[in-house]
């Protein structure tokens, strides 16, 4: 009796997994350049997306894509001037460049406690926020070419920033300067002196 041949075992051919599509990036920018843009795009569902400087790789913000693959960062924190960014996840998006304006703060490098620190702000007409160490201290309805504010600051190093803002609560890129107060003083606060800049 002739034995029945046993069929050779074969492994199924694995299905090639297509590479993940790179993320996409778009910016919804303020036409005047005074307010920070919103960033949005697509990536693999659930993937972490970072928005970085295209040249140096500095991370500006990060988020995670939703189940449908969409993501957004509102607003995208960026400095004044021109910045080119990319979205990075499984690959890199095409670069996008945005140009942002900011008021210009002028203040003495050193000041004495108890004397109001004069801050001159050169700006266009519109709402301008004044911040001390990242905390909003005052919103001014500015008229070009700008205004002055007197700041009562505690002893130590302080970062004073200014940015454009909108009545809806949006804000722009922050321009900063540093002030060193040499003597002890009361807790820092912004006081009410405002006038057009010379």
CATH class of the largest domain: Mainly Beta
Secondary structural class: mainly beta
Note the main sheet. 5 strands, antiparallel
Number of domains as seen in the coordinates:
2
In the predicted model, the low-confidence regions spanning at least 5 consecutive residues are 185-198
What is the mean pLDDT? 88
Give the total of beta strands. Answer: 17
**What is the CATH homology-level superfamily of the largest domain?**
Immunoglobulins
What's the SSE pattern? EEEEEEEEEEEEEEEEE
- Treating each run of at least 4 consecutive H or I residues as one helix, how many helices? 0
Helix proportion: under 10%
Anisotropy-based shape: elongated
CATH topology of the largest domain: Immunoglobulin-like
Report the CATH architecture of the largest domain. Answer: Sandwich
Portion in strands: over 45%
Rg is 26 Å
Distance linking N and C termini = 114 Å
């Amino acid at each position: 009796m002739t034995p029945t041949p046993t069929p050779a075992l074969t492994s199924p051919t694995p299905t090639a997994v297509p590479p993940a599509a790179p993320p996409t990036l778009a910016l919804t920018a303020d036409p005047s350049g005074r307010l920070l843009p919103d960033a949005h795009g697509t990536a693999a569902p659930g993937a972490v997306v970072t928005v970085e400087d295209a040249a140096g790789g500095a991370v500006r913000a990060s988020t995670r894509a939703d189940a449908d693959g969409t993501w957004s960062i509102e607003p995208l924190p960026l400095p004044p001037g021109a910045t080119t960014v990319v979205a990075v996840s499984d690959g890199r998006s095409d670069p996008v460049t945005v140009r942002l304006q900011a008021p210009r703060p002028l203040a003495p490098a050193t000041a004495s406690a108890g004397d109001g620190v004069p801050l001159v702000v050169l700006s266009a007409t519109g709402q301008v926020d004044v911040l001390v160490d990242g905390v909003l201290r005052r919103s001014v309805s500015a008229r070009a070419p700008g205004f002055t504010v007197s700041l009562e600051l505690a002893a130590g190093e302080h970062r004073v920033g200014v940015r454009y803002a909108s009545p809806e609560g949006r804000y722009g890129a922050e321009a900063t300067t540093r002030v060193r107060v040499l003597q002890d003083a009361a807790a820092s606060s912004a006081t009410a002196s405002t006038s057009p800049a010379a």
